[in-house]
């Protein structure tokens, strides 16, 4: 049986290192994802300091972290950056991302049909990418959800940006890697 994709706000005291969490940006227009790594910190993939990027407002620096945009770099255009931020800077309301849901559920909500690896593997991959990066950020092809699902499932998965931005589910479906035969 596939799990339900019901989305419930996280009790952050129950988060485990390796958990894939997400928050809503631009009042729910789209989601931003990361891997919780313990000590109230999250590793996530952002466009990097860019000029006039409305989607990713500056969030720091704060007492605990450098915030989304590294706290400096105004005017520097970067193509993508894996950063470590505190839970507060990551987002106001945080939700736990689910794996192993049915494909029908996955296309309706923010969750993934692939089976996840262990939390430990997700944690290790996130820490590795913090050093090595995750390539060029692309809202559609290489975003924060792709980053987090890569860490946890070994696959870059994201349907939501296409649906949210262009309302074209068919294009989104064609972009998904070949899925499992059964739901
Ligand atoms: Zn912070």
Automatic annotation (TrEMBL):
It comes from the Eukaryota. Signal peptide: none annotated. InterPro entries: LRAT_dom, Papain-like_cys_pep_sf. SUPFAM superfamilies: Cysteine proteinases (SSF54001). PROSITE patterns: LRAT. Residues 22-160 form the LRAT domain. Coiled coil: none annotated. PANTHER family: LRAT DOMAIN-CONTAINING PROTEIN (PTHR46137:SF1), OS05G0310600 PROTEIN (PTHR46137). This is LRAT domain-containing protein.
